[in-house]
Amino acid sequence: MNRKRALISDVFKMKKRRNGTEKFGAVDEGDGPADMKSTLATLMTLFPRKLFNDTLPPIVLKHQLYSIHNDKTLVDKEVNKLQESGELLMFQLGFDSEAFGLVFASDYKAKVLAGEEGKATRTTVEKFLEKVVSSCADLSFTKDKMLREFLFTDSEITQLVKSGVLTVRDAGSWWLSIPNSGKFTKYFIQGRKAVLGMVKKSKYNEVLRADLEERRTTSQVKFPMKYHVHDIVGAELVESIPTTSGILLRFADS
């Protein structure tokens, strides 16, 4: 297993998919942009809108798709197609170098504009959504590109950072970001840790997937259990093992 730079503790590292390991319960047939879009829409129904007072667009992590579709390369290819068509946006979420959030572009624009209602930054944000988000699939932008290609001023870039659609990557560059998503990241990491803890505390560090999905959430788990199960399976923080009783999830040691 290759070591990767992580931005949080080892428990949150996503593991490289093992060659030759069969992914039980996953599907390959009929994959394509339409099927991947359908899978995304299904996963997004698990997103707890009310938890964030419906201010955030539904967010799915790219690796959650790997818990449903067997072929990781195909998933990446179809996600890229949806990005290139302008239907899907991708975000670097910050807590792990390989954790990418996926949001439908229409949902993102609607929530961003709703949050800008009555604010002085709205005109600049509208310009950003039209000129940048609608035409560019980049995850980050340099100052040179923002000034020369998209024709934003330094003052406008400052407004975009203030509004939350850009967040600082390093000196002279910014990540595309989801306004007010800090609470999402906090609850997601907190929930992942708690659900992994449930697996580790089970006998032999393993539990039936169906049983885990049906468990009642605790105060540490704000999202539906299925949302977190798709996360830990897709990130390979647990191994999926077929048994006569169903899929068994076993905690995967680093």
Top keywords for this entry?
254 residues, alpha+beta, 9 strands, elongated
**Radius of gyration over alpha carbons?**
19 Å
pLDDT averaged residue by residue: 88
Oligomer: single chain
The global form is elongated
Side by side, the strands of the main sheet go: 1-3-2
Unreliable spans are 1-31
Distance between the termini: 9 Å
- Computed structural class: alpha+beta
Topology pattern, helix = H, strand = E: HEHEEHHEHHEEHEHHEE
Which bin fits the share of residues in helices? 25-40%
Count of beta strands:
9
Question: What's the structural blueprint in terms of helices and strands?
Answer:
Elements (H helix, E strand, L loop, with lengths): L32 H12 L15 E2 L10 H13 L3 E5 L7 E5 H11 L6 H12 L6 E3 H7 L4 H10 L2 E5 L2 E4 L5 H20 L4 E3 H6 L10 H10 L3 E6 L2 E6 L3
Antiparallel strand pairs: 1-3, 2-3, 4-6, 5-6, 7-9, 8-9
Could you walk me through the main structural features you see in this protein, from its secondary elements to its overall organization?
By secondary structure, the chain is an alpha+beta fold. Helix content is 40%, strand content 15%. It has nine helices and nine strands. The chain has a three-stranded antiparallel β-sheet with strand order 1-3-2. Strands 4-6-5 form a three-stranded antiparallel β-sheet. Strands 7-9-8 form a three-stranded antiparallel β-sheet. A hairpin with a 7-residue loop joins strand 2 (88-92) and strand 3 (100-104). The longest helix has 20 residues, at 182-201. The radius of gyration is 19 Å and the shape is elongated. The termini are close together. Mean pLDDT is 88; it is low at 1-31.
